[in-house]
Amino acid sequence: MSILSLHNISKRYGAIQALSGVSFEVPPGSVFGILGPNGSGKTTLLGIVTDVLKADEGTYSLFDAPPAGRLRRQIGTLLETPNFYHYLTACQNLQVAAAIKQKPEQDISRVLEIAGLTARQHSRFKTYSLGMKQRLAIASALLGDPGVLILDEPTNGLDPAGIAEVRELVLRLAETGKTIILASHLLDEVEKVCSHVAILQKGKLLLSGPVNEVLAREDYVELSGPDN
Ligand code: ATP
């Protein structure tokens, strides 16, 4: 069984070939990193599998079936910074998010607890640190209790404390059995939090598989040399 399976996905924006024939599989329970430098096609790939963008070529399946609305409801996403209200509390912001996403309100105290924000749930969003704001964004993606989370560069723009908090949260979520797919341009991040990785360069898949196997491969060592 695979959570997500890509077959030969290609996408072009005018003259720019953003993705060329990308194929890989995301196993259940993995923290799956999509690793690549800026412009390598990570966001485009996540856009396609979340139905924000259409691939020009290729197909993908979710939970071993053609993608359908019913299956998409089992996936929580954090693709861009959510618009939280600065003068509302964390709890009130999640009430708004639950209403917009048509997710059950009874999930709110559960996701605040998972994100480690229960003690500060009645503080206004504007008083939150960067790490707490991002943990709230992940809490919002967890409304509805999806089994899979897709996060685009979840530690981007955070301070060191925030980066550590978000990575810890990702690992805790993985321990509860969730599958997490995250884009990152940081090898260090992938090594710290991911069990599996797909490496993209200029829209092409270089390598994919378990992190310890991929990063130990000779061809990866060559790729990550001083010229890359
Ligand atoms: P980043 O971390 O900078 O977002 P990325 O790995 O997520 O990089 P993409 O954003 O998917 O990469 O971009 C892949 C390529 O497609 C880049 O060359 C980018 O400039 C180009 N691109 C992305 N979106 C568009 C668009 N809407 N129109 C034209 N070109 C685009």
Automatic annotation (TrEMBL):
Keywords: ATP-binding, Nucleotide-binding, Transport. Transmembrane segments: none annotated. Residues 4-227 form the ABC transporter domain. GO terms for molecular function: ATP binding; ATP hydrolysis activity. It comes from the Bacteria. Belongs to the ABC transporter superfamily. This is ABC-2 type transport system ATP-binding protein.
